[in-house]
Structures are given as C-alpha cells and as structure tokens.
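Before the break, one more example. Copy the sequence into your notebook; we will annotate it together after we see the structure.
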Amino acid sequence: MRAVRRRADAPVGSGQVNPFLSALGGKLAERWVSTLLLPGALFVAAVVCAVRLGHRDALDLARVVTDLTAAFPRAPIALGAAGLLLGAAAAAFVAQGAGRVIEVVWTARWSGPAVLLARPVVALRSRLARRAAGRAGVEPVRAYLPQRATWISDRFRLLEVRIAAQYHGVRLGLLWPRLWLLLPEQVRTPVQAVESQFRSAMTLTGWGLLYLTLGAWWYPAAVAGGCAALVGWRRARYTTNSVTTLIEATVDTHLPLLTTALGYPDALNADTALRINDRLDKGA
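Here is what the structure looks like once it is written out:
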C-alpha cells in the first residue's frame, strides 16, 4: 500500500518530463561538443604547434607529440584536461565574438569614419554593376544598384526596398517582429534553420580570422585560416540569399495576418501602409 501511495502521490507526467529533460540535456551537450569543444581543441593544438615549432619547423609534428608525451608524466592528466577544456572554451567564445563583429561589418551600413572607406568601395561596386548591366543590354534600376560597402548588406537593404515598393511603403523593420509573433511554427522553422546556418557561417569566418592571426607565428595556421574564412564568406553569401528570399516569401504570403490583427482587414493601400508605419513606430 505504501508503494502504491507513493506512486499516486507522484507528480503527474513526471515520468515523461524526466526523459524529455534528459534528451534536451543530451542535445545541448552534443551541440556544445560539436560547436565549441572540438573546434576549440583544434585551435589549442594549433597554438601548441605555433609555440613549439614556429615557421622553421612548422611541419615537424612528431616533435610536438614527443614534447607532450614527455610532459605528461610531470603533470597530472586531470590538470592537462582541464587546461584543454578551458582553452578550447575560451577560443570558441573569442571565435564567436569575432563572428559577431564580422556580421556587423558585413550587414550594417557603415557609419562614422568607416564612411570614408565605404564611399570608394560603393562607387567601385556600382561601376562594376553598371558595366555588367551594359554588357547584358539591361538598363539598371537605381534602387538595385549597390549602395552599401558589402554585397550582404546590400542584399538586406534590397529586401527592405522590395517590400516597401510592393506594399505601398510599409517598413519591413517595423512589421517583421510583429508578423513573426503571428506565424505558425511550420513557417518559422525554415527561417530559423537558415538563420542558424547564417550564424554558423559567421562563426566559421571568425575561426578563420583567429587562425590567420595565429599564422603570424605558424604559417600552416594561416593556410587553414584563409580556407576557413573563404568558406565562411561563401556560406554567408549563400545563406544571406536564402534568408532574405524566405523573409520576402513569408511577408508575401502572411502579411494579411498582421494587417488583420492590427485592425486593417481590407486590401493594403498607401494610406493604410502609412497608418501601420506610424502605429508600429509609435509616431516617432
């Protein structure tokens, strides 16, 4: 009877929650290992090679193995493992931080002193775009010509331009967070997946930057860093095109959800778009 009573007093669903939490913890641990620990451990190994070998003996990896083997008897294995974990985690966080900085450089409109550098870059990109349009026999649309220093930033700008042109000037930056709250889960999932790929590309580029920096002491790291940065840049361009296309498609197919929720169920026109912008911007 006591055993039965204990089962009856147990919280409802506790047998279901614990496996769920265990599975969630397992997925988080797996993600931590794959995205932080392994790349960080590889970078720590590269740092060791840079310190022990330098440029002259850059490919003498056997010497590093010998040095480490000789050092282990003098140091506790647990201490070495803890140092490896801490170094790997620190390197991973630095790489993620570098990726965030790269994301700002690639996606934002350059301001302040960076404008002096952005102007000639934009002029060059615009000249090349006009030349390509001329060879194709096409008259370029002014709004579609480069106006930002990077292709990725221009692609996001063009997304806003296209939405505003199609929907009477409604501003994507204002409507997207509200529309996101109304979207069903099956619509959010592909956008979130591509956005995750975009972040991963930025982090990969951040790793490339770290390896390029380490290449000042060990040239194989510069080679690895250059390859990682190039792959990250290519992936960033690809995922930028994917995420902007998905956002535009989502607005095209679900904008009535937002206009109806805001009290404008009729077809969108210029006056309604102005009212929506003013309401979402709080009259600012």
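The chain has ten helices and no strands. The first helix runs from residue 2 to 9. Try to locate both features in your own notes.
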